[in-house]
Amino acid sequence: MTEDLKGNYNISVIIPVYNEGNNLLQLNKEIIEILNKINKTWEVIYVNDCSSDDSENVLESIAMEDVRIKVINFRKNFGQTAAISAGINFSRGEIIIPMDADLQNDPIDIPRLLKEMEEGYDVVSGWRKERKDKAITRRLPSWIANKIISFITKVKLHDYGCTLKAYKREVIKDVKLYGEMHRFIPVYTSWMGGKITEIIVNHRPRVYGKSKYNSKRIPKVLLDLITLEFLASYTSKPIYLFGSCGLLCMFSGFLFVFILIVDKFIYNASMIHSPLLLLSSMLIVLSFQFFLIGLLAEIMVRIYHELQNKTTYTIKNTININKDL
Fold this sequence. Notes:
By secondary structure, this protein is α/β, with parallel strands linked by helices.
């Protein structure tokens, strides 16, 4: 066994949990059975995102039976990205594998992810090719989102939304996660020169509980994608973006003025009484102001957290964290 960069585990499995009490015992049993067959040291970190069911009690009982089972309980609900971020921060494994707690991700795929990692890849992403979800409300929006993300980021993956992935610690340890950014970790890795591959993984139908994903997440993901593209292309040279927008606004303004002047001389129309110039100018300026203010606010939030070493979550308590065998 080899020690990793941070502690004494080869593998860290990170599982965000929110109201999955009925699934946890079965999930934990399946994960332990699979990990015990692998000739590597491991830990499993459950991050309880302030569940309102009995998830916290179930996790406590599980952790009491094995010190390799770690639990982090949040004080309030911060979301999946914050839960994965906390798991990464407290993990001690050389390879980090996040997965869902709803039993739809199959632990049997973990050895396959690890086998691909041995081929020299930095990220192995799961692809739920045969998804057991509703076609209209889940699969179709996901397909559209994946196409858009791949087109904009130039990182070709079929399934960005699949939580089941494997990462080398060295390529993920410095990534700061906000919003719904956990799905874009492969993009960050690609930008840093990491090698990425994708494998088809098993996807099982949900038995207990309700899905936490809905159409409300779509605009969040799209806005995060805008932020991601901005950070990738314009963080070091924002004048390119702001200057381009300024030139576009200026061109549009002069174009409308030209139209009004032509209209005045040909049709003798009143420029003063025409709402076109004022209305068009206001809409263009307002649209760019909203986007640019949003991007500036995003940068300010990141600076606030990173300079002060603040996290996007607060922890109520932990179990077995930093406890060795």
